[in-house]
Design brief:
Structural class: mainly alpha
Strand content: under 5%
Helix content: over 70%
Number of strands: 0
Number of domains: 1
């Protein structure tokens, strides 16, 4: 099982690199523009309350709020299935964030300039750090929770990943390709974290009641 998780993680990282090369070559421009035109350019038609909600959704996915959430979830995971699971979640979150930052520098993709950014940004665009964080944190959490909460945890993961990605496009700070790359990168590290937690216990941690 661990080997399959590692192979899947490696495949996702490879896909992130391939997508980054495609973005750099301009192959995703048409699709990115269509999606941004459908969402980001309509932000002016949205109510202030909706824009504020999107900013809030984006805010909890990055910076200090993200790490506060990770720390709290690590404490819960420690209680559910032990310190190795908490280390898996913390380590996967930290390493995925570092990898996202390095890939941003490596690919050097510019942020969208279709509208005025509705969230402050200072780094490059691909892959999205917010999307990376949402995927690694909530997918790995869904893997580690006790079985009775697993369905709710997977639903939460889906909602947070979609909401986070949509908010970043809506606020004009990311292309759809950035979100796709970040989500795959986060999923890869979630698989690595799951493999690490499983290897230490000899079973899937989420099987613990």
């Amino acid at each position: 099982m661990e080997r399959r998780l590692l192979i899947a993680a490696a495949g996702l990282v490879f896909a992130v690199i391939l997508l980054g090369l495609a973005v750099g070559a301009g192959w995703t421009v048409a699709a990115d523009l269509r999606i941004s035109h459908a969402f980001a350019l309509r932000v002016g038609e949205s109510s202030p309350a909706f824009i504020t909600f999107m900013q809030w959704a984006s805010w909890i996915g990055g910076g200090t709020p993200r790490w506060v959430i990770v720390i709290l979830l690590c404490a819960l995971v420690w209680r559910w299935c032990g310190p190795r699971c908490a280390v898996a979640l913390a380590g996967a979150s930290l390493l995925s964030n570092l990898s996202s930052s390095l890939l941003k520098i490596g690919f050097g993709v510019a942020r969208p300039d279709l509208i005025e950014h509705l969230d402050h940004q200072t780094s490059f665009s691909y892959p999205s750090g917010h999307a990376t964080s949402a995927a690694v944190v909530y997918l790995l959490l869904a893997w580690l929770v006790p079985p009775r909460w697993r369905r709710a945890a997977w639903s939460l993961a889906g909602v947070m990943i979609v909401l986070n990605g949509f908010s970043r496009i809506m606020l004009g700070v990311h292309w759809a390709s950035d979100i796709a790359g970040g989500t795959m990168l986060g999923a890869a590290f979630a698989l690595l974290g799951a493999a690490y937690a499983r290897r230490g216990r000899g079973l899937v941690p989420a099987n613990r009641e």
